[in-house]
Design goal:
Chain lengths: 285, 353
């Protein structure tokens, strides 16, 4: 619902640091994502990758540092407001609403169309010229009273959801319970549900986890596809090196909360520090 | 699978509602006073159960403070409809405070105000306690429900304390109660089957994912809690004018009532509105039927004295059995719709979905 003005850097992370007690999980992470880029974030287990995601999406508040999204400082904003501003994510372990149907899962993502007032107000405050003053609508009451306004919206949501399901080739499962889907389609559904919030930045947390090479290859094409179709900027965490090297344009490597390398896939492949982080240091006896 | 269209659904439902209306008219006139009262009670219980299932079933937060809101609604409405003379007579320990001692309003506005005041209390209780989750939330609401009861018990100048209110006009008829039940079902049903209802069901399954989908979890939970509180207050107002005397004992408007309603919604299936209504019907009838076990009886030549509270023992046993063997209840999370009945009875064997 929210249009994002064209600016070069979609996401900028400045000195992002978070401390849990005495442990510095992420230590002054500096990074950026340009519009339309597909960037990978890799590192050994426990390096702090998901923590970075959680800071971007507002689940954790960074101890220092800022998250700048389209030129706006979104540090410390509430997770749902950040989603409304246009950052959607998926989870490492699939978190679908398993008792709801496939269609309903997508429709839940579209619920944000009705409740994004706070986000629009924040945008207006950030740039009054680009974003007009938002008008608050009593959607809750319209939903109970089923006003024509609401019914029109509901219809729009449904047709958009079906379109999305078609785009991810899940439309034939629309009325099936989400838990009845096989693993691969569940991943796709989670991405479709994230797309329902109309994001401009998509964060994928280990999308290829638990997939066989064939499925991984399909997913690779699928992600390329939706990136073009929905003109997305994507940041993804992944362990499957083949997958990361095949799809990412740029890679950040994280170890113990610090960036140890940053560059093109080829450069990363031959980086000594990266190899050390993954395989361990040489041992001199 | 054959899908029943929206229009057919609407027509069938309208016929069903009108048919139920005629049945109630018939039952009210021919079954006698006793059954009239039971039928009224069924609707009152159903209002409480439907409003409770919105929080405990649809939203998936386990509240135990429902009786508190019912009590608030009951007292508010009763204080507004009590005749002024009756008030002067009842409040002999401490006189009733000013605005309440000189007003008497009609039943409908009193009920609505009862609902609004209960919703306000739900907001006050929900705002701090919804920051807790799971068991802690249940304990907090249990405590708040008890606080409400104890405040009622001790504010003599407003509620007449432990003496309770007597001589409340018996306004609650079959029509008032079933009318309000219809309103409750329409509003809560409309909420459940809207975008907001979907959001509530989503956050009941996974709050983290719901938050990532842009749902303001706290706000949605609070909204559901307040709507539930409103209808609990309505139920309480109707209940007060059905009982005609109310007092703040734990067994009348206290924790026991919460457990009664909990039995109804668990029996009917948590999260199902039609299940809550079915549970209420079952509970109201069973509670009357189980009066037999509380009276003295002759059992194969052995005389058993009447034991008050025996029926609760049986309810508790039934509750345990449900929890062990039939946790989804009658309806599970499904609703009793025409489609559901069609699938249940008319679908041919081997029909594919």
């Amino acid at each position: 619902m929210i249009k994002i003005s064209e600016k070069k850097s979609v996401l900028k992370l400045e000195n992002l640091t978070i401390k849990f007690g005495g442990l510095t999980a992420v230590d002054s992470f500096n990074g950026y994502l340009n519009k339309g880029e597909l960037v990978g974030l890799i590192g050994p287990n426990g390096a702090g990758k998901t923590t970075i995601f959680n800071m971007i999406t507002g689940i954790y508040r960074p101890t220092f540092g800022n998250v700048i999204f389209n030129g706006m400082d979104i540090t410390g904003m509430k997770p749902h407001v950040i989603t409304h501003l246009g950052i959607a994510r998926t989870f490492q372990n699939i978190r679908l609403f398993s008792e709801m149907t496939v269609l309903e899962n997508v429709l839940v993502g579209e619920h944000s169309w009705l409740t994004n007032f706070a986000a629009r107000k924040a945008l207006h405050k950030h740039d009054p010229e680009e974003y007009p003053r938002p008008r608050w609508k009593p959607w809750f009451w319209s939903a109970i009273l089923k006003t024509p306004d609401y019914l029109k919206m509901e219809k729009e949501m449904k047709s958009h959801a079906l379109e999305l399901l078609k785009a991810v080739e899940l439309e034939k499962y629309a009325h099936l319970s989400a838990s009845a889907l096989p693993y691969g389609p569940q991943r796709k559904l989670e991405i479709a549900r994230a797309l329902a919030t109309k994001p401009s930045l998509l964060l994928l947390d280990e999308p290829a986890a638990g997939m066989n090479p064939q499925e991984t290859h399909e997913l690779l094409e699928f992600i390329e596809n939706i990136r073009k179709k929905f003109s997305l900027t994507i940041l993804l965490i992944e362990h499957d090196m083949k997958f990361v090297m095949g799809i990412c344009e740029r890679i950040y490597v994280l170890d113990y909360g610090k960036i140890i390398a940053h560059g093109l896939p080829k450069e990363i492949q031959n980086n000594k520090k990266v190899i050390e982080a993954y395989l361990g240091d040489e041992i001199y006896v | 699978m054959k899908r029943i269209s929206v229009r057919t659904n609407f027509i069938l439902t309208t016929i069903f509602v009108i048919g139920s209306g005629f049945f109630l008219l018939f039952a009210d006139n021919t079954f006698g006073d006793y059954w009239s009262r039971i039928i009224t009670l069924i609707a009152i219980y159903a209002i409480m159960a439907v409003s409770y299932t919105l929080v405990n079933g649809v939203t998936g937060i386990f509240s135990l403070g429902h009786a508190g809101f019912i009590a608030v609604g009951a007292y508010t409405a009763a204080l507004l409809t009590l005749p002024i003379q009756q008030k002067a007579m009842s409040f002999f320990i401490e006189p009733l405070i000013w605005p309440l001692n000189s007003i008497q309003i009609g039943f409908l506005p009193a009920t609505i105000i009862g609902g609004i005041v209960a919703a306000f209390f739900a907001f006050i209780v929900g705002y701090p306690s919804l920051r807790l989750t799971g068991d802690y939330f249940a304990i907090a609401t249990l405590a708040f429900g008890e606080i409400i009861r104890i405040v009622i018990q001790n504010s003599y100048s407003i509620t007449n304390g432990a003496l309770g209110l007597k001589g409340i006009p018996p306004y609650t008829t079959v029509w008032w109660s079933w009318g309000w039940l219809l309103v409750t079902i329409i509003v809560i049903g409309s909420l459940k089957f809207s975008s907001y209802g979907r959001a509530l069901r989503a956050l009941s399954e996974d709050t983290v994912a719901a938050r990532a989908m842009g749902i303001n979890v706290f706000k949605h939970q609070l909204t559901a809690f307040v709507v539930s509180g409103f209808f609990a207050g309505i139920g309480g107002a109707l209940y007060a004018h059905w009982l005609t005397t109310i007092d703040p004992r734990p067994t009348s408007l206290g924790i026991m009532l919460t457990f009664y309603v909990l039995i109804m919604i668990v029996l009917g299936g948590l999260g199902s509105i039609s299940g809550a209504v079915l549970g209420a019907i079952f509970f109201a009838i069973a509670a009357q039927w189980l009066r037999i076990v509380e009276s003295p009886m002759n059992f194969f030549g052995i005389t058993i004295p009447g034991i008050p509270g025996m029926s609760m023992l049986i309810f508790a046993t039934v509750f345990i059995l449900i929890m062990l063997f039939w946790r989804r209840g009658v309806m599970g999370k499904k609703e009793l719709s025409w489609q559901y009945l069609y699938n249940l009875f008319l679908k041919k064997v081997g029909d594919q979905d």
